[in-house]
Amino acid sequence: MATATPTRPEGLTTTRAPFIEESQSRGDLFIEQPYHLYSEDNQEAWRRLYSRMMPRWQRYAHPRFLEGVNNLALSSDAVPRLEDINKFLEPLSAFKAKAVAGYVPAYMFFDCLRRREFPTTITIRDKDSLDYLPEPDIFHDVAGHVPMHTDRHFSDVLVRFGEVARAAAKRALEIPERERRVHVVESNIKALARFFWFTVEFGLMRHEPGSEEIRVYGSGLLSSFGEIEHCVESTDVQRYPFQLEWVVNQYFEIDKYQPLLFVVDSFKHLFEQVDVLEAWLHQGKLDNVSPGEPLINEQDLRSFLNASFE
Ligand SMILES: [Fe+2]
Predict the structure, then answer these.
(1) 86, 195, 290, 302: which has the highest count of C-beta atoms within 10 A?
(2) Does 8 map to a domain?
(3) Alpha carbon of 137 to ligand 1 centroid (Å)
(4) Quick check: 299 and 103 in contact, CB under 8 A?
(5) The predicted structure's pLDDT at residue 210
């Protein structure tokens, strides 16, 4: 039997995890989840996040999400182990959560989705500041995203989305002039990021087709105690039927409650929109979208320009 590894006091707290800093300094992106490093404070953060969120999920989350929470056997008592999550997840949709040490450049991220892998943050926010966090943590990634991945239709949307990203990277290779190629790729990434933001991260869906009742399926909303209620109840939020031409040209800010959200009819509707997105890509309709957020960083740009296709 192996001897127990001593727990480091720092734990795996967001922005304060020596294990993550060491992984990053070695250049390791895909890592193991060193479960023994979670401190008692980390476990307490999970318990607080989960227990206060559950009643709001029951009220506002899409039924597929609630089924996902059940199917994954997520625990209210302890930070989940990704290997346990994957035992439940893989048989349902062939998706798996894969631990990462930090930011995954855009192309690599979308291409992971195409392969049914979800880059998953393993750190957790501080137990005393549960509300706002600019960076993802395990509560956002595992409790916000992964339950939706148990749904075959939703997971197919993610795969299709990864295919569109791949088509964009391939298409860029055919643009001979570098300045034009960079402009097109930047614009394509912006359009993809906006689509992802207004669906996978902040999407709303009709409870049933034709129903006026709104349910939440976007992970940014599902992992926010305040915004999950605000996005459905507040008269300050503009909720409009999903319109692709609007979504790909609409900038967004990540550090405040969203003033504008889009409602899809169903998972089928969402899937069809990814098909339209791909058609628009090939027609050049995503080559010069409206400027503004998100700004495309050098890493994201290079990940598309240097993509390899095995
Ligand atoms: Fe997310």
Answers:
(1) 195
(2) no
(3) 9
(4) yes
(5) 83
Is 243 inside a domain boundary?
A: yes
CA of 140 to the centre of ligand 1 (A): 6
Cα distances (angstroms) measured from residue 43 to each of 54, 84, 88: 17, 16, 22
Q: What is the pTM of this model?
A: 0.95
Distance 136 CA to ligand 1 centre (A): 6
Q: How far is the CA of 142 from the centre of ligand 1 (A)?
A: 10
- Whether 76 is covered by a domain: the verdict is yes
Q: What pLDDT, on a 0 to 100 scale, did the predictor assign at position 134?
A: 79
2: in domain: no
Taking only the tens place, the pLDDT of each residue in 111-155 is 999 999 999 999 999 999 998 777 899 999 999 999 999 999 999
Domain count of the fold of the chain = 1
What is the layout of strands, in order, in the sheet containing 238-241?
Answer: 214-216, 204-206, 260-264, 238-241
Low-confidence residues in the chain, pLDDT < 70: 1-9
Q: What is the pLDDT of residue 262?
A: 98
Give the per-residue pLDDT at 6: 53
Q: What is the span of the domain harbouring residue 123?
A: 23-305
d(CA 38, CA 57): 25
Here the CATH number for the domain that contains residue 45 is: 1.10.800.10
